[in-house]
Amino acid sequence: MAEDEDIGDQRGYGLDRTLALSDGVFAFAITLLVLDLTVPTLTGAASNPEIASALSRELPKFTNYFISFFVVGIWWSSHRRNFSYIRIDDGTLASLNLLFLLWIALTPFFTNLLDVYGNVQLPVALFALVQATAGCFMTVIWWYASKNNRLISKNMKANDIRKILRFNLIAPVVFLLSVGLSFFVPTVFVQFFWLLLFALLRILRIRESKMASND
What we know:
Blueprint: H1 2-35, H2 48-57, H3 59-83, H4 91-117, H5 121-146, H6 158-181, H7 187-214
């Protein structure tokens, strides 16, 4: 019995380390995103019109920053939601989480690529593909942890497990659709298509809260 308790404590400690590493990667990714924003350098005496003009030229960078910030925020929220139900850790879960974090850490690079070549299809498609891959790993993490209630509460209902799985699939599906869309429409429309994801997830969250309050 004491040995079983020790194993449980080790798995709980392993879960704490997994969450600590994850939060660190999310924080690092967000920090790198903002570091790409630079103050414009003006020649001669600066005036309000010149500063306003210089900042307007930086607008695409700010747009990409906000989009990437909210995308990382979606993954953080999804990660937090999934792991709030996970009770113990094992080697497979830790490995899957590392693979998920790999794509989160790459997000600042592909955001920078958008800053430089945002009007070209390939960088836009690559950014979407990176996010879709991150979403797929997030989905796999939940599938692995919840299969037969492996790492989650034994009392969690199958319907609730499937609901979270379907919710996890929304973001990667949207990003994969945007990869295909990028071949047919201007890149700016693809980025606006990503913004629909935030609205869709928000609507689903509100709907879920109302359904929960009615139960």
